Amino acid sequence: MRAHFVLSEIGVGLRRNLTMTFAVIVSVALSLALLGGALLARKQVNSMEDYWYDRVEVSIFLCNEVDAETDAACSRGPATEEQREEIAAELESLELVDTVYHESAEEAYEHYQEQQKDSPFASVVTPEQMQESLRIKLTDPTKYEVISSAFAGREGVQSVTDQRSLLENLFNLLNGVNIAAVGLMMLMLVVAVLLIVNTVRVSAFSRRRETGIMRLVGASSFYIQLPFILEATIAGLMGALLACFLLLGVYLGIDGFLAERIPVIDFVGWDAVFSVLPYVLVTGIAMPALAAFFALYKYLKV
């Protein structure tokens, strides 16, 4: 009997506030889709950082004849074979260093010609202008400063560069976009909560006579509140399910379109998407229920 009454009250409430319920569903769906998108974006950035930072190399460029005439760091002359071997030996003795690869000026010239074959400068660059270098793979790419402080300014060393610095701007941009998405998601969640609170109070006001009678016959506050809370929860659940479908649809497009056309990005897999969906569903259920409970706490208190 009690379950039938509660269900009937839920049906009445949803029918009376159909437009506002629809607005709640849409706002909850958008805010939770942004929540899921922000969580996936965070996973994507972490995945890209692990993927690219693991491939980062530190390069020690050695002085050549041209640098000795034009670069103050090479004023003591071009690097000798003994200096190069000494630096390589010191690098290999460090636990931080995984591998050391020597690239001669001729090899650097060949790589440059392959990479810049369409550039007008490729035809005027000579092997003598290219620098030989030591390419170092680190066990921990974040410890680049150790190599830089140890070898920058050494005799025969023109410069020490880290490819990681080239990626930091990209990842800072991605983190900024993710923060903006989180901010927009928080704004949408606030809008959704306000809509839920307003919808529940309008529904409670329209049924104030019924709730007053229930209070007079001894019904508990929770029993009076339950239909309103369940109305909000159902609307939130519908919004959460819609948000899940939106996330699945967007990722389906990413997996079927972008992943094939942008192979340099290691996109997160379906496992990451499915790991986010429970958070979306739980938030979609808990947020409206709590908002309705606190909205009705003082309203129904007599």
Automatic annotation (TrEMBL):
It is found in: Cell membrane. One of its GO terms (cellular component) is plasma membrane. It comes from the Bacteria. Residues 184-301 form the ABC3 transporter permease C-terminal domain. GO terms for biological process: cell division. The keyword Transmembrane helix applies. Residues 56-160 form the FtsX extracellular domain. Keywords: Cell cycle, Cell division, Cell membrane, Membrane, Transmembrane, Transmembrane helix. It is a multi-pass membrane protein. Gene3D superfamilies: 3.30.70.3040. The chain crosses the membrane at residues 21-41, 179-201, 222-252, 272-297. Forms a membrane-associated complex with FtsE. PANTHER family: CELL DIVISION PROTEIN FTSX. Part of the ABC transporter FtsEX involved in cellular division. Belongs to the ABC-4 integral membrane protein family. FtsX subfamily. This is Cell division protein FtsX. It comes from Streptomyces sedi.
